[in-house]
Amino acid sequence: MLSLIGNHLAAIRECARENDRAGAFPFDVFTGFRKDGVLGATVPRELGGLGVTSLYDVCLALLTVAEADASTALALHMQLSRGLTLTYEWQHGDAARQQLAERLLRGMGSGAAVVCTTVKDAGAGPPTSLTPDPVGGWRLTGRKTLASMAPIATHFVVSARTEEPGRPPAQAAAVVSGQTAGLTVLDNWDGLGMRASGSVDIVLEDCHVPEGDVFLRGAVDAHDDAQLAGRTVSSVTMLGIYTGIAQAARDYTVSTLARRGRTPAGAKALVAETEARLYALRTTVGAALGTADYLSYEYAGDPAVRGRRMMFAFQRAKLMVNKLAPDIVADCLTVIGGASYAGANPLSRLYRDVRAGSFMHPFTYPDAVEYLSTEAVETGRYDG
Amino acid sequence: MLSLIGNHLAAIRECARENDRAGAFPFDVFTGFRKDGVLGATVPRELGGLGVTSLYDVCLALLTVAEADASTALALHMQLSRGLTLTYEWQHGDAARQQLAERLLRGMGSGAAVVCTTVKDAGAGPPTSLTPDPVGGWRLTGRKTLASMAPIATHFVVSARTEEPGRPPAQAAAVVSGQTAGLTVLDNWDGLGMRASGSVDIVLEDCHVPEGDVFLRGAVDAHDDAQLAGRTVSSVTMLGIYTGIAQAARDYTVSTLARRGRTPAGAKALVAETEARLYALRTTVGAALGTADYLSYEYAGDPAVRGRRMMFAFQRAKLMVNKLAPDIVADCLTVIGGASYAGANPLSRLYRDVRAGSFMHPFTYPDAVEYLSTEAVETGRYDG
Amino acid sequence: MLSLIGNHLAAIRECARENDRAGAFPFDVFTGFRKDGVLGATVPRELGGLGVTSLYDVCLALLTVAEADASTALALHMQLSRGLTLTYEWQHGDAARQQLAERLLRGMGSGAAVVCTTVKDAGAGPPTSLTPDPVGGWRLTGRKTLASMAPIATHFVVSARTEEPGRPPAQAAAVVSGQTAGLTVLDNWDGLGMRASGSVDIVLEDCHVPEGDVFLRGAVDAHDDAQLAGRTVSSVTMLGIYTGIAQAARDYTVSTLARRGRTPAGAKALVAETEARLYALRTTVGAALGTADYLSYEYAGDPAVRGRRMMFAFQRAKLMVNKLAPDIVADCLTVIGGASYAGANPLSRLYRDVRAGSFMHPFTYPDAVEYLSTEAVETGRYDG
Amino acid sequence: MLSLIGNHLAAIRECARENDRAGAFPFDVFTGFRKDGVLGATVPRELGGLGVTSLYDVCLALLTVAEADASTALALHMQLSRGLTLTYEWQHGDAARQQLAERLLRGMGSGAAVVCTTVKDAGAGPPTSLTPDPVGGWRLTGRKTLASMAPIATHFVVSARTEEPGRPPAQAAAVVSGQTAGLTVLDNWDGLGMRASGSVDIVLEDCHVPEGDVFLRGAVDAHDDAQLAGRTVSSVTMLGIYTGIAQAARDYTVSTLARRGRTPAGAKALVAETEARLYALRTTVGAALGTADYLSYEYAGDPAVRGRRMMFAFQRAKLMVNKLAPDIVADCLTVIGGASYAGANPLSRLYRDVRAGSFMHPFTYPDAVEYLSTEAVETGRYDG
């Protein structure tokens, strides 16, 4: 996967600035990814993919792409993480889930399917809901936001809650083809950063979803720590994106100083601290991914313990990433000075992109404070 | 001055986002400032201005404008600080300098003159130079950058070095009318932030400058601590701009939390620290401005001591401003979460604008480290 | 007051290290303070004191003492702040309170009375209580801790709650002579720092307190924001102590570097940041004290508003003091290196002493987070 | 080794406080270590030791001991790291070095030899020197400081420079028996922390050293990057000590909060950040040790490259350790509040001990700034 990606880095780097300015999605890059099989990297070989299963490897791939352009990495993450979680469904789900997962994975493996996952409801409206369709199957209605990679998606996996008369609402994920009547992909992404990630809103108006195209999960209010594993797998590789941003800022800064030929005292101190922080950032992320891989594939104990341990490592690493990566980028701007403030300077994009890390789910900073402090103090489970 | 400015705040606030997006200068706002006399605020009453002399008051005015839009404050700073330094020339300069200063001040007082000062040479070309013009007077050639407020300037005060056969080069500031042949104001500002400040480049090609329109200073290599006073007066009020940005971020955040109605633990900690930092930011800036006022207007001792004391207080405050203000804004984004990452959210502009503080002269961070540590250790002059 | 204190600084400095090692109280220094009238500094002139009323001035005096020895300053604070609050009682209390306050103040003014105030109950026992004494007056029972300056105190002001049959418990402060039967001053102070402050425990076993020797306050559960003013006056001047510690660390470091003659890059960066932080620390503390003085003596509005504004300024400053002062000291140790780790090096005492700031009431860090965030978000009272 | 150490942890923990107070060396603990073979842990099996070669394992052992008492770990580090470097001499040195190393290692393996290494010269005297002894061999004169574990040492490895007529001075390490005439072990250690580590001064007055008991190294001014490997091996395992201190602070804090039963908002935020920092601390240290092991035992390339890579990883990790570990301990004090300020509270010892990390060689903070920034900017060797 890394060598396939390597072929695209120059192209990604080249269009990064222009797409950032325009808030435009890098369509050509993803066409290349699709042709090379990058979009099927995490699909099992039997289903036509490259069979990458290691979260560490996916994280490293995203890190490498993010060094060239973080928006591209964020969009690519959508497809790669979906491959991983669908593979889990294909291997461990019941027959219905296996079938649905296999259909999507085969499409992803062949390059026919590009799958955008949307979790967050947009705005203040009612939550996105699945209600029984009188003709059978479901009707999906709502509005989703931050649907990265949506501009090229052929399918959408949409989080929703079921609303059925006489039954408690349940969590679900509906698979919807991009052709479905009632589905509109807006072109409304205009963020502070990650501007080329196509993180638009999706409007769903009474979209029909066939019976078999919904992954049903537990009751909305049920609390099942085993699910923390899936949530970790879905998101933990994104830590590589912010690491790649920090690495790119450091590399640009160090090479600029080398060209300038003289490093004043204040810059030396910041460079030394940047080296130390980047080292800590890379090793912390590496450790969290190693833990996630171990717990995903080798640990055979209690699924609730697995979920909690994965999430606890993930969240500790994430809190540090969201501290270290922005600090590194900010110090790089301080070292480079006024030149870095020009829109055309790569640091000015990295400064905006790196800030997205705080908002990445799970968890936001306040939720992470609650989660980590409760785990540590109340449950006392993790002493090391 | 504050009440005059108050009349414009709603208009400034209203166009801030759109001008930021487009990188457009707020022409209408400055038309209003000119009509109201705001642009002559720091011109002596005798010369048609409002007679504001207190650096503290100017800083507070810029703070108030910056709460609505920092770009506008940065551009306004150009005119207000020029009024202060020209008034000093008018009061203490020799006859030639008095005459030149008076001419400009009368223009600024009547609203006819808008004076943009440019210090920094653009790019890697030769330094901007004043050479003797065979027809008398000087010829000015070079390229300047970060000339905020240039889009509406009627005059430019351009730093340059004289190059005369048989004489050592001297520092000078040439006053050039915007109509001068050879002067071109580019429309090339495209910064990470401060996008509506019109901080463009100015190209000067053999511009004729009359003999009397140049302020001559000492030799280029001469070191005169007395000059630190003028450099402080020119720039210290800008500390208000970054204080205003931090205040705006805090106010938006606190009022948003109040509307949300529940503040989680992690947000409480950040809000408390934001309150404390903002308090320190305001009081530190206030103290530096109070010191600057005292030394400018009441201190009657050694001019070199005055210069050093003004600059030492200014640089200590500036280092803290460039630490506290970005930290406040970043924590506000963390508290508000994903919503703050939308281009339309005020925090996303404040996050970009606040970063300009590090690059503001004098000094950049590495230069400030050198300056402050040398003053403290080697000269031992300032024990308190 | 400052010039009186100046006479003692050399002596304070000289015995600081030895008293710190031994955890011994500086009896001689306080004998000198008593003779000179320093212990009566905040007693009105009419009652024999120096009549200092300005909180700012008291803070500056404590800062100056703390530069020589923070423990001495902490102990001195006890007497000086008591003078201030008793003066308030003497001026604004009812006849009974005036009488009690006057008696104590006259003693403090003449040097006969040294008054130690104890607020915090020790350990896990029942709260210190005042119960009616069958012979009239009260009986005081309990155990207090952190009673700085107790080794030389002639009187103790002891916070307690009344417990009377048929009445709700009330807050009270009992004045107890050091001769009272049942009162024992332990010699049990052994802190990480502030080791010469004599912050021992006081045991009270059925001590008789005459009827008139108790200041009664409101019900235990009553919440009266006006009381925040008194709590601020009692403690806000302590901010000077931590400022003095930071100043001493900086002065030692800068003069050591000057002697060494070469300042490496990493040290330059830390020195520059220390200068900036110390400037912010001094100006922030100065501002909070200025506000406290204004609200104490000039503000004539709603007492609840006064209390809240005093405490809000105090707490914001305190949070910054507890961030800036330890950071300054820690960076000074880093700059000086291994030499600072010797027990005989002044920095090793400052490093321990400065940490006491976080525990100083009101408030601890968690309480300050709650207080400041609630004030800011929920009440929205303070926009600037 | 870990299980052997495990047997002693309760005893170490028990006497930690009393030894810290008294500045006393834990003789009994080291008698136990000697009996169990812990003092020979890093001696090859063939020479009577346990044959531990992994730096990671030694670091983990020191971490575990440091959780109980950091002073003990610091003293133990002396012996364990000497075993590692002597084993290297035994395996790779010339015949003379092999013989000397083997003699010491056999002593360490049998428990007969306890070897204290001293690098730093004390005070301002002339550097410690080896001059030719007229009777053959050398004469060693000088004064060394910070010789941890000296109170029980049977041998000393003393850094010195040779001074021979007609030859350039060379670096050397002389092995001196504790019985040697002219050698005095002072009892003068009185540090801010690490008070039970016995880090005393050693006075050497014309001590005779046999010809074969000196390891000669290169010229004093020679710069050989290959030597960075040895310097890393000698010191990198100490990172575990500061990690153990941070872990102990966190464990005490979390268990205290669990007992208190309610965690306020401000404490939650600090606990969450402590968890994240400790995770980063452990993973960063683990990575640096893994790199050191790989380069020590598996890397077969250019010795200068090996030296530089080992040191670059070590120094980046060390800078983070010296940031993260003190921050963790300080935040734990803030969370626990006034109780942690009592001398008897474990946090008050950890607060003093953790500060030693900044002074540990190589390098101090200013030297690390110079080293890391130069490596990064000027040599550009390390891009990842």
Automatic annotation (TrEMBL), chains A, B, C, D:
Its EC number is 1.14.14.21. It catalyses: dibenzothiophene + 2 FMNH2 + 2 O2 = dibenzothiophene 5,5-dioxide + 2 FMN + 2 H2O + 2 H(+); dibenzothiophene + FMNH2 + O2 = dibenzothiophene 5-oxide + FMN + H2O + H(+); dibenzothiophene 5-oxide + FMNH2 + O2 = dibenzothiophene 5,5-dioxide + FMN + H2O + H(+). Pathway: Sulfur metabolism; dibenzothiophene degradation. Residues 13-84 form the Acyl-CoA dehydrogenase/oxidase N-terminal domain. It comes from the Bacteria. SUPFAM superfamilies: Acyl-CoA dehydrogenase C-terminal domain-like (SSF47203), Acyl-CoA dehydrogenase NM domain-like (SSF56645). It is found in: Cytoplasm. Its main location: cytoplasm. Residues 133-207 form the Acyl-CoA oxidase/dehydrogenase middle domain. Residues 242-357 form the Acyl-CoA dehydrogenase C-terminal domain. It holds the Pfam family Acyl-CoA_dh_N. Keywords: Flavoprotein, FMN, Monooxygenase, Nucleotide-binding, Oxidoreductase. Belongs to the DszC flavin monooxygenase family. PANTHER family: ACYL-COA DEHYDROGENASE, ISOVALERYL-COA DEHYDROGENASE, MITOCHONDRIAL-RELATED. This is Dibenzothiophene monooxygenase. It comes from Streptomyces nigrescens. The gene is acd_4.
